[in-house]
Design goal:
This protein is of the alpha+beta class. The chain has a single domain, classed as OB fold (Dihydrolipoamide Acetyltransferase, E2P), CATH 2.40.50. The chain is built from four helices and seven strands; from the N terminus they run ββββααββαβα. The strands form two sheets. Strands 1-2-3-6-5 form a five-stranded mixed barrel. Strands 4-7 form a two-stranded antiparallel ribbon. β1 and β2 form a beta hairpin. It is globular, with a radius of gyration of 15 Å.
Length: about 160
Amino acid sequence: MQSSAKAPGFCLHYQKIVRLVDGDGLWVMDLFSKREQEIRLLGIDAPEIKRCKKLFQDERETHLPGQLLMELGRLSWKHLASLAPVGETVSIMTESMDSSDIYGRTLAYVHLQDDTCLNEKMITDGFAKPYDRYFCKQMARYQTLSLEARIAARGLFSRVNNF
């Protein structure tokens, strides 16, 4: 599955995944400079895996208990780990030169060596949903892919209708 996100603010190749944070975040290390940075997968959101402010917000918005949301978050994290395990070499692409969120994480598309876009794959497989807090050129496509995943009851949609 190749993304049509091809006009980045910047593109960094030879990034090694050093840690998966959750279903929509990871840490990469540049293989040459050894510099590490945290990446937030642009345009997607996966359930949280631990209690935090965002989990309480998700509880209010989805009317689902936090414990269930955290279980879904762990399933999402495991799916991301199966697609992009620690040690995998990836490329990251941003939409603008200053793509970061309020926590300083780089907002980016992450591509595997076969050009599979992790952002898109997580939505297509039903383990993440579109997230429009930050501008994303792929949002309309992600919304369509998410609807298709929900209708087909893929991934987390096999357990709940929303998350």
